[in-house]
Amino acid sequence: MEADIELLEAWRAGDVRAGDALLRRYFEALHRFFAHKVDDEVDDLIQRTFLALVRSRQAIREAASFRAYVFTVARNELYHYLGARRRTREALDFGSVSVADLGTSPSGAFARRKEQAALLRGLRAIPVELQVALELHYWEGLTTAELANVLGVPQGTAKSMLRRAREQLEARLRRDAGAGVEATLGELEAWARSIRDVARPGRS
């Protein structure tokens, strides 16, 4: 399989098939990213992300960071969408408001077990920015350096955000009295992997 950097360079040189292959490679990950945060606009948000990537392919400064760039664009599209849903012009603070606060519901990820349902509820209850950080780290395997690029913060801040996100999620799970779960960080990683497998296009 060709690496992202090879496909990107071929795409920049005019190889449309390389561009198509590169975008298809990220379809499933983008579906996961949006499906857990919005109602019925997943496909539209994926399309917007792809169009933005097509327009900016020549402007990506470091081809090796294409994965981080994909999720940077996706995050921007998500925040624009969530902000546009507001009836007021007041800007949203994604560092404090959660998906649950905004009244959206997931359209593509369905929990098969009680523990998975508890984790999904917990993720939707923490601030969107922290939810994004946790999901990209555990579901997509982004490093703290890549997360820093996506979130537009120094790497040290990205590490701190991950720590806060885990702490808030763990606290939320412990408050979920009906879940019957032991919310440890070790379990968090295992649960995240299990939900990643469930949250795929066409899965229910």
Automatic annotation (TrEMBL):
UniProt-listed InterPro entries: RNA_pol_sigma-70-like, RNA_pol_sigma-70_dom, RNA_pol_sigma70_r2, RNA_pol_sigma70_r4_t2, RNA_pol_sigma_r2, RNA_pol_sigma_r3/r4-like, WH-like_DNA-bd_sf
Key words, A-Z: DNA-binding, Sigma factor, Transcription, Transcription regulation
Gene3D superfamilies: 1.10.1740.10, Winged helix-like DNA-binding domain superfamily/Winged helix DNA-binding domain
All residue ranges annotated as the RNA polymerase sigma-70 region domain in the record: 27-88
Single GO MF annotation: sigma factor activity
GO BP annotation list: DNA-templated transcription initiation
Domain RNA polymerase sigma factor 70 region 4 type: 118-169
Entry annotated with the keyword DNA-binding: yes
Pfam family, any one: Sigma70_r4_2
Similarity remark: Belongs to the sigma-70 factor family. ECF subfamily.
Protein name, per record: Sigma-70 family RNA polymerase sigma factor
Organism: Nannocystis pusilla
